[in-house]
Specification:
alpha+beta; Multidrug-efflux Transporter Regulator, Chain: A, Domain 2; Endonuclease, Chain A; 2 domains; seven-stranded mixed beta sheet; two-stranded antiparallel ribbon; 9 helices; MerR_fam
């Protein structure tokens, strides 16, 4: 039996309120399908993790898309056992997203553009950044301190971040990523706010010489689609729940709001910009 701790702060009433699924239905699902699986207090009371909110919502999305409840639960239960990453989850949830090979120098430029726009325009954004290694985080720390000043929360992932350093208001929340986790190969910047949504996620191609520096290659995707960005935020928040329980500065109601997909015009503009970015990246490669 899993014992509750800081990573399991929610009662069944909390879970019901956050997901819209009645408590009686959640108990029925648990009895019939073993989902969601709560931790138990000594007196037998159920407690749930923040990630359970996302998993229940994902079951509802699958059911609304036409899957039988049992199949939806089985799919979510199977997926939750896999090593998760922001990149992989977005590819799974949004298979139409375009992935292209970009250099590290191009990713730096795109990341700075998102960060600058987030700092200039976004109202109390929720921001996530994945830096692979601590030295990369250190190189960007001043920028992220500035971003964190006006953010609802700014969360940074790195392999040797200080996981339990006291969280100071207006400072990034550091999350240490375990060795061997898929996130250690990823680059991500996610800015999610009511008035600005943008994300860039990438995974480093295997077998590269680290001495390549700015010429290292990544499979990359970016989006300003509200639905995609919200999913990126939810996945990143869930990973932070796993690696640093209790990091959330109160209720992040933004994550609970559903977003509609982008308009056809926005999709067409994104396709054009993807092509432009590809050509710009190609022009920067050594000849």
């Amino acid at each position: 039996m899993t014992r509750p701790g800081p990573s399991h702060p929610l009662t069944i009433s909390d879970l019901a309120q956050r997901t819209g699924v009645p408590a009686a239905t959640l108990r029925s699902w648990e009895a019939r399908y073993g989902f969601p699986t709560p931790a138990r207090l000594a007196g037998g009371h159920r407690r749930y993790a923040e990630s359970d909110v996302d998993r229940v919502r994902e079951v509802l999305r699958h059911r609304d898309a036409g899957l039988a409840l049992e199949v939806a639960v089985r799919r979510i239960s199977t997926e939750s056992t896999r090593a998760r990453s922001i990149y992989a989850e977005l590819r799974r949830r949004h298979p139409s997203l375009t992935s292209q090979v970009l250099s590290k120098s191009s990713l730096v430029a795109l990341s700075h553009a998102i960060e600058d726009e987030c700092c200039a325009r976004a109202e109390e954004p929720l921001i996530f950044g994945s830096f692979q290694r601590t030295e990369f985080l250190d190189a960007s720390r001043a920028r992220w301190v500035e971003l964190a000043r006006t953010a609802r929360a700014a969360v940074v992932f790195a392999n040797h971040a200080t996981p339990y350093a006291e969280v100071e208001p207006g400072r990034p929340i550091e999350v240490a990523v375990p060795e061997g986790a898929a996130l250690n190969r990823e680059w991500a910047v996610v800015c999610d706010a009511t008035d600005l949504r943008a994300c860039l996620v990438a995974v480093e191609r295997p077998g590269q010489d680290q001495s390549l520096g700015a010429r290292r290659r990544f499979d990359a995707m970016w989006s300003v689609d509200p639905e995609v960005v919200r999913d990126a935020s939810r996945v990143a928040a869930s990973l932070a729940d796993d690696y640093r329980p209790g990091w959330r500065p109160g209720a992040l109601t933004l994550l609970e709001e559903e977003q509609s997909g982008a308009s056809p015009d926005l999709h067409r503009a994104s396709d054009l910009l993807n092509r432009m970015i590809g050509y710009l990246d190609l022009s920067r490669r050594p000849r």
